[in-house]
Design goal:
Blueprint: E1 5-11, H1 17-27, E2 31-35, E3 38-44, H2 45-54, E4 62-69, H3 73-81, E5 94-103, H4 110-129, E6 140-148, E7 151-157, H5 179-188, E8 196-199, H6 206-215, H7 237-249, E9 258-263, H8 266-279, E10 285-289, E11 303-306, H9 320-332, E12 338-343, H10 348-352, E13 358-364, E14 367-374, H11 382-385
Parallel strand pairs: 5-6, 8-9, 8-11, 9-10, 11-12
Antiparallel strand pairs: 1-3, 1-4, 2-3, 4-7, 6-7, 12-14, 13-14
Helix pairs in contact: 2-7, 3-4, 5-6
């Protein structure tokens, strides 16, 4: 059977494009282009399935329909109408524009764009299917539009509920770090599953849980469903079953890990444990109530990877210097450890006690943050230890 070829657009948090690019390469696909906040690649039907189930840092997998320039609503209508919607949406398909984003474009009213695009799609499909009315009682085909400097990109959303919703986080903290951002931070570090990982501000447990999923090779989308599973004309339904079965066969829960999550709030520790159980990794993580000032470990070459409270999240400004000083002091007492701290607190380095070896700008939703990276020593290679 000849597989259909598609162009796929995968949005991500600003700053994680390089990590997502590497993930797509690892799945075996070639990159078409990398842009701010998204990576575009080409693949067959199986790529739609593998990307949804396997990507840890993508927010969605969007199927590219077409693009054009539009400086007026008339040009926009004609551009949408000219696209080959009948190749994707069947007669009974339910279709609508779920989101339109406009940046630096003459057409900026997103509600008008959504309404006009639907009318243009109806006109096109009416002519192709010879229908005056569409039942729209079949599979859902949500459309997403992006306007950037008057250039329109049109996609279909294969994912549905965003990919950061893995399905395990039933319980949340007040301001949780998204699963995709947590995965990205871990993947920006040299941490590997056999190394120690500690999060002294674990909240609902997202960083330790994402680390455990990686260590055990559990695909992030294994326990959830996707919009494109009902697109039986576009993606062979058997592929979803095959890829899930393959992913399950590659899980290794016997892997030895030293992943620890601490929080001063006992309710958060309970929530983190429940979420880890939902994710199937409870046995791989040690959660405990602990103040950051009591952070310690006898092992060498470990990692602190954490998202401390900051301005928009829980703490007042006057509390932050003391908290970061305490974290810096605890880190300095560890032997050859590395530390990765994501925060929007601009004076973080000052109070952590020294300049980071690297820092990277990341956007946690709309909040501009920095990932401060402190690099410890590398463990000796196996033959050197022997």
């Amino acid at each position: 059977m000849v597989m259909k070829e598609y162009k796929l657009v995968t949005p991500c948090h600003f700053g994680l494009e390089g990590v997502l690019k590497r993930e797509i390469y690892d799945l075996g696909y070639e990159i078409d282009s990398v842009e701010d906040g998204r990576v575009i690649f080409s693949g067959d039907e199986e790529a739609v399935v593998r990307a949804n189930i396997g990507l840890r840092t993508a927010e969605r997998v969007l199927l590219y329909i077409g693009e054009f320039d539009a400086f007026s609503f008339e040009e926009f209508f004609q551009g949408i109408e000219a696209l080959p919607w009948e190749k994707y949406i069947p007669k009974d398909g339910r279709f609508w524009v779920t989101k339109a984003t406009s940046v630096k474009s003459k057409l900026f009213s997103t509600s008008d764009l959504q309404s006009l695009a639907k009318k243009a799609m109806v006109k096109r499909l009416s002519g192709k299917y010879h229908l005056d009315w569409f039942p729209e009682d079949g599979a859902e085909f949500p459309v997403r539009l992006f306007l950037m400097k008057d250039h329109v990109t049109v996609t279909l959303d294969t994912t549905g509920v965003p990919l950061h919703k893995r399905g395990y986080r039933t319980y949340k903290s007040k301001a949780p770090l998204s699963e995709t951002m947590a995965a990205g931070i871990i993947m920006l570090s040299p941490w590997k599953g056999e190394r120690i990982l500690m999060d002294p501000f674990c909240g609902s447990g997202t960083i330790p849980i994402e680390a455990a999923l990686m260590a055990a090779n559990i695909a992030p989308g294994l326990s959830r469903s996707f919009t494109a599973e009902k697109w039986t004309d576009l993606v062979d339904p058997a592929l979803w079953k095959e890829v899930r079965s393959e992913a399950r066969s590659e899980i290794d829960l016997s892997v030895k890990t030293q992943i620890q999550g601490f929080d001063i709030d006992p309710d958060m520790v309970d929530i983190a444990r429940k979420n880890a159980e939902q994710a199937g990794v409870a046995e791989m993580i040690h959660f405990q109530r602990r103040d950051v000032k009591d952070t310690s470990h006898s092992g060498k070459y470990g990692f602190i990877i954490t998202n401390p409270p900051y301005g928009e999240r829980l703490l007042s400004e006057e509390d932050m210097p003391g908290l970061y000083k305490t974290l810096g002091k605890a880190y300095n007492a560890l032997d050859e450890w590395s530390m990765f701290v994501i925060t929007s607190f601009e004076d973080a380095e000052k109070y952590l006690g020294r300049k980071s070896d690297k820092n990277r700008k990341l956007y946690n939703g709309m909040i501009k943050t920095r990932l401060f990276q402190y690099m410890g020593g590398k463990p000796p290679k196996k033959k050197d230890r022997e």
